[in-house]
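User: I'm curious what two different proteins look like when written out as structure tokens. Can you demonstrate?

Assistant: Sure. I'll show them one after the other, since each token string lines up with its own sequence. Here's the first protein:
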Amino acid sequence: MPEVSQSRLIPRQNCWVSHASQSSLGIVLDHKTIGDSVNVKVVWGRDQTVKWYEVEELRNGFQPGHIVQDMPKSNTRRTLGTGTVLAIRRIADRDMVQVQLHSTGESRWFPYENLIRLRDVSIKYVRAEASETDSGERFRLKVLAYALDSWNQVRGCLRSHFR
């Protein structure tokens, strides 16, 4: 069996990954060690296909603009919080992600394995999958929001009343 490098990081649960044989991005669900090998369970794309991979087969799945949170594996270092992905780079055979931290505004490079994706409010709204029981209510609320926005743009009433 191939020996796992001690410096190899294991992607955290909810880390976004990619694989050469998959056209979509995957989300890490779990991992397990079998002998000297570390296997990672990934769910892929909208079809929700689940498959196990050796950790060496996976690469970074984050893209510029994603909202992420630093999740260190060490108990001695606290999280640096949330941030926005600015760039991706491969440094010393390791995928690194440049993140601009929301709390301080500084940019830092993180190993992708220590990041998890957060869905910001706009993503949650746009990509929300309506269930059969609430699709009518969602449609009604979207129409109401559009009508209020249009009315406010024409009349400016909401701006003057909420100052």
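Here's a second, unrelated protein for contrast:
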Amino acid sequence: MDVAIRYHELALKKKNRPWFVQHLVDNVKNATRDLKGRKVWHGAEYIGVEVEDEALWPVVSQRVQDTMGIAKYFRVYRLPLDLDAVQELIGEQVSQRTFGSFRISAHRASKKFPVKSDEMNRRLGAFVQELSGARVNLGNPELEISVDVLHKEILVYFETYPGYGGLPVGVSGHVAAMMSGGIDSPVAAFHMMKRGCRVSMVHFHSYPLVDMTTIDKAEDLAKIITRFQGSTDLYLAPLA
């Protein structure tokens, strides 16, 4: 099983872009480090995660989605530079799906590939229309089939999943945030992580004059925040 990842904001960086991208690659590796047979690959257009067990898709999807800096991701099929192989795969997948309208979205990153994007759209579109009887709808299709021709392979995918965007955690330094136990604190931490900050939480409490309810709440919130940055330091400051 392969998952391909795209980023938007990082692509706007200039000479320091590789530094930002490497942070994202490292964060993806960290988020998926315990998954059996996991491999992370990095190309000019994508970052990818390869996992042996198909049943791990829900876990991989959640962890990739929770990694800051990712605009969107896809479960992809990696094929050789052969349009016949692409058509065969699409035929297999289309026969397992029910849809009334569709769109082919072909993108040719490698200009050495002999078939242009428009021609791929027409050829594959005619094939799917004949096979399924569905109509072409470029504006709001029930099924969008994406074909990305890279320099060494072709990626085909059928669903797109959104990420949170922003910057990878770690590129904007380390900050501390107040953790009160309400909704405002974790939301503020989330937005700082989205801008690339690694966040440590500080909770002021009045134990032992009161019970440990607020401490327990702060710990629970810190565990949720950890989903988005891998680990979180929580500092408990005793007011009493």
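A detail about the second structure: The chain has six helices and twelve strands.
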